[in-house]
Amino acid sequence: MEGAVRLGELAEKLGPHGLGLDALKSLLATNSERFAYHDRKWIPTSRIESAEAPFVRAIQVTLERFGGPMPIESLAQELSWIRPESQDWSPERLIRIIKGSALFLYTDDDQVALAEWAFQASGETLERAYALNQVDAKDVEAAAKKLSGVDWRAKDCAVQALKAAAPMSAKILGAVAWLSLNPQDPKAHRLYDAREFFSRLIAAPGSSMGATASCTRNRTSRVGSVPRRRWPRSWPRRFSSKTLRRLKSRRRTLRR
């Protein structure tokens, strides 16, 4: 199967970091939500879960397991590995399907995200909007205090918000923006757009989104540099610093 992880090659690349083959096997075996051993190879679990699922569900599972927005080209490639018998996995076809579904968001920089990662509301009451998005009013109130200096009508509002409060849930950030842009007054103009705000959020220089839909900001990044999560051909090729620490800890345990 294309794109499968070869542990020997992966262990060789991570060798300089002090991570051996045993530690990698332990990590993969204890993360069944992300990895699966299939046909004597380690592959993303989403490929097995989506193999016989309806088309839209396959997209949904792939994004869930990836844990963040995916570039449209990477999503098309991954789906072609999951369902190779399908004839057309072009980005153009995917874009039409994604834009026609309420489950997904297609961002301004050609990435695909789950709609549930963003705060979705328009003219609802506070109670209903929070209930629909499963956010706590106290969390929103606390975030609003941190973000009191943000100009939510400015084009760089997402940058301002991340500088003031990152790391923070993308939904909570969206809730505070919605509160400011869509007042409860029924006669007021409603300016909040969930897709537009989410697009600005993930495209902000130095920002990234983790598996918990929490936005962080790399303070050492240069303006204009936007790190993206990738789905490499030999998935996963790189690990986060948190995962590296876990691997090192497992390696020490295995040596005892």
Q: Domain count, please report it.
A: 2
Task: Calculate the mean pLDDT score and round it.
Answer: 81
Describe the global form.
globular
- Strand % is 5-15%
Topology pattern, helix = H, strand = E: HHEEHHEHHEEHHHEHHEEH
Portion of residues within helices = 40-55%
Distance between the termini: 36 Å
Oligomer: single chain
Describe the protein.
The protein is 46% helix and 10% strand. The chain folds into two domains: 7-101 and 230-255, no CATH class; 117-217, no CATH class. A hairpin with a 4-residue loop joins strand 4 and strand 5. The relative contact order is 0.14. It is globular, with a radius of gyration of 20 Å. With 256 residues, the protein is mainly alpha-helical. Helix 2 (21-29) crosses helix 12 (241-255). The two termini are 36 Å apart.
